Amino acid sequence: MNKKALAILMRARMRPNHHTNLALPPISNEVNQLLPNSRGNRSGSNGNGNLNNQRSFEPVRESMHSVILMHKTEVLDSVLNDFSEGYFSLSFENRRKLLITLSKEYDLNRTQVCELIKQYLGLKSPGNEVQSGGVEDECSLSTFYRIERNLRHSLKPVYETLFERINTHSEGLKFLTILRADILSILVEGNIASLRAMDSNLKDKLSTWLTPAALELHQITWADPASLLEKIVAYEAVHPISNLIDLKRRLGVGRRCFAYFHSAIPCEPLIFIEVALLKNIAETIQEVLWDNPPIAESEAACALFYSISSTQPGLAGINLGKFLIKRVITLVKRDMPHISPSRYFNRFSKIYLALYRTFPRLVFATLSPIPGFMPWLISKLASQSRLAEAEDISCSSADKSGLPFYENILEPEEERALIDSLGDLTAGKSGMEILLNVLTPTTHDWINSDKLLSALKSPLMRLCARYLLQEKKRGKALDSVANFHLQNGAMVQRINWMADRSEKALSQSAGIMVNYVYRPENINEYAQSYFIKGHIHSSDDVKRYTQPLTENECKNS
Amino acid sequence: MNKKALAILMRARMRPNHHTNLALPPISNEVNQLLPNSRGNRSGSNGNGNLNNQRSFEPVRESMHSVILMHKTEVLDSVLNDFSEGYFSLSFENRRKLLITLSKEYDLNRTQVCELIKQYLGLKSPGNEVQSGGVEDECSLSTFYRIERNLRHSLKPVYETLFERINTHSEGLKFLTILRADILSILVEGNIASLRAMDSNLKDKLSTWLTPAALELHQITWADPASLLEKIVAYEAVHPISNLIDLKRRLGVGRRCFAYFHSAIPCEPLIFIEVALLKNIAETIQEVLWDNPPIAESEAACALFYSISSTQPGLAGINLGKFLIKRVITLVKRDMPHISPSRYFNRFSKIYLALYRTFPRLVFATLSPIPGFMPWLISKLASQSRLAEAEDISCSSADKSGLPFYENILEPEEERALIDSLGDLTAGKSGMEILLNVLTPTTHDWINSDKLLSALKSPLMRLCARYLLQEKKRGKALDSVANFHLQNGAMVQRINWMADRSEKALSQSAGIMVNYVYRPENINEYAQSYFIKGHIHSSDDVKRYTQPLTENECKNS
Known about the structure:
Chain A is α+β, with helices and mostly antiparallel strands. The model of chain A is unreliable at 1-47 and 128-133 (pLDDT under 50). Chain A has 24 helices and nine strands. The first copy, chain A, folds into four domains: 31-107 and 157-209, Butyryl-CoA Dehydrogenase, subunit A, domain 3; 111-154; 213-366, Malonyl-CoA decarboxylase, catalytic domain (Aminopeptidase), CATH 3.40.630.150; 373-556, Malonyl-CoA decarboxylase, catalytic domain (Aminopeptidase), CATH 3.40.630.150. In chain A, helix 17 (412-422) packs antiparallel against helix 19. In chain A, strand 2 (255-262) and strand 3 form a beta hairpin. Chains A and B meet through helix 6, helix 7, helix 8, helix 10 and helix 22 of A and helix 6, helix 7, helix 8, helix 10 and helix 22 of B.
């Protein structure tokens, strides 16, 4: 592309344009809240608006009814088009009304369910005592299976038919993701049991339809259409892309970007991953985003996954990334033959053995945020400090260790260093209270004080390791990103101090980032032991943070 | 392609080669019964074979068990590969054993179902009387929906999990079609209720996964890989393709071939349709298959669908052709701009109106077999003649019209002409008995006698029209091909005497073929009235066959 064309591209707005046929944006989609047009719909619920709303609501409700009632052999196309167009024209209030109507009035026929249950309970079920053989047996068994099947069908909510029919439409899956995004944003405002039940039904359906076999992996390059690239810019959720130069850098030499697509959600990357080829596992995000010029790819020894973004709010809770990393590892390897000499030489040949040590081996690692660390730490500190206050009358402020449920999460040396760093300001306060006071303000003033920084490093790194390796919920890592990588078969390799100084990273994890490492030969084993025993594999370096300090280390700290 | 290359291709065997990774053929697949290797598996159920069979059966059963038991977050790839490879290595007997085991031992947990039914019946269901509002209401409703959901899940057979997991595999859908083909061929041997229930479950699943939105329409041309073309040759079910020259002809000038594909069943055309561009609606299949050289496409006034073949026995009963014809009509139209001038000129412009009459309008028609006509007619004649024999003692052989259920399906003139044409050979026999005797032998000697031919034409054409327009089952046309086209929105245009003299066509329909016509502007209307009222649209010419002859016509016949 010449300079002029690029300049024109850069002047164009950097936002996706969704206005294709079936592809209108959900009102709840964050990206699209940037667009003035779609926000406008949210208003208009007063005065004349009400009448207009009512007028636009009824036809859509009727077209929805038609879609559900039509017999399956009829031609649905035009009815489905009517409904989807109608739906997209509705205000948020009317979408809400329609979806609640759908969840309540197009649920089960419970009279029929009860009738079938009665029939079902009256039959003898096929147990082990029934030997195959007699024709009569097979006959009564057939009846049994038929009624069981009818019962199963009767328990299927009517709205499932609507979802299935929309899915037969060429861009139906896209419509359904938007529908679910709307359901989720209604549920955020308050729980509605019928709607929650409908959401869980739709989520199950979407999971089946978005099976990995139906997803297509595509490498995003600078040769892709601008309409696709601007979506990558808009959807990047981890490290915002500031302009097209930044984007071009992320698709250029030493970088890769891969996205999953589905044929029924055309031109929409559902999830994408960005990879940097580096000499070493990066410790800070600056190394990844600002290493200009990049190293030659032939010098790379590490493929670093530095950003993974899910793009569709309507697909929340559906694990699309499951097979993504494994497939990307295969693709990157294939693409860098100098890294895997075994592709070219027999593993036991002399030439392979001679060259083996001269070839660097590619390490697959991530540089990941720890989004739950600070929320966890602050809530922990706050609850301890409330506990302490409540019991303050009976105890001295310095020693609360006798309290039930009270736990001083700071080591004595750490507490001392903290108090020292702040001097008189800490009068009478415990280390945890000080920590809470320092970390709570969203201004993050602490990063400007060298003294405070050095006092905070030791406890924050230790507590971060504890958070990653030991804090669990139902046997799984509490941190969502950690859980994602661990269930994919990664291990916790290293945590990095001041790895990302952005506002967001300071709020999420006090600027700490973590490297997970994927060892292709251990992926399956690690994934299984994490799943079965909740076992989190980690390097000795990270483990050491969570073990009591030795005397020697105490002196050094 | 040069002559030499073509000659080599033509010497190659004309059968598909299925031996890819997951893609081994079902033992029951007709096409593959041609291959000696796959038939071999069917033997080996005696002597040492039994022991070997047992030895190969257990590991496959175990790998199937593993696939079902694994948690969804585990990595299934290798286990699924084990199972599919194992399955394909089994003999027919062992596949049968495995599938019956699956249907019986991996069914529901019925104790759990009963337990949940008990809980469910104990709850108050959300009726109209429940107003949205109170938090407590929403809470008890949530419980209700949760238990209802659990009940729904508990009614899901365990083997559904197996099917869903296989479907996540990249060529899983292909494996599932083969599995179902095997189930169907076991059920042909005898009914097994549990297996029948499992089949209906798998069929439902396959229908969902093979939704039209997931199917891709591809025009097959001579530029396609030979591996695909040989499949078209092997799968052509209506008018066998004799060699590559014949195939090249069907993909050349004045011809089109379109196929539906699914990404998870790679390189397999699931259903395909062949189209001929002709001057008129063809009356005989010879005109279509042997018009050499073809007319120039610019002279075509009719796009004739002369062959539609479903290829996968495992997809029996799943209507893949539903949207095929509509989509093909659109594609053919787009491809022939001279036929649809409205694409290029405004419909009301002077130039359009001036040219309108000079442009031929493209008619979309079929030349279709009537596979059920002779079976229906012969069974009708046989039952009437049994009825007549039973009552023979009390009645004269000439007049049986007084018998209950007895119906002389021949007109008096037709009966007279038949008796005349055969002379003394018919002594004492009724017209229907003679017809039965003439039509039953598979040697079809009647087509060699001009006298007989002319005597048969009138009754057979009339009865064929009656069969197509009036004989129904549950409100739908009895003939499967007729039902297919009518539900797609076609009308019955014309029936053609001696349209196909092949062995197969003589057995199916005494050589008669039918033209269905699709009028794009009526497709939806006709499909709906056929669906709702069972109404079969037909031309006056065909209707006339089914009406009583006028006096004038009697004289002429």
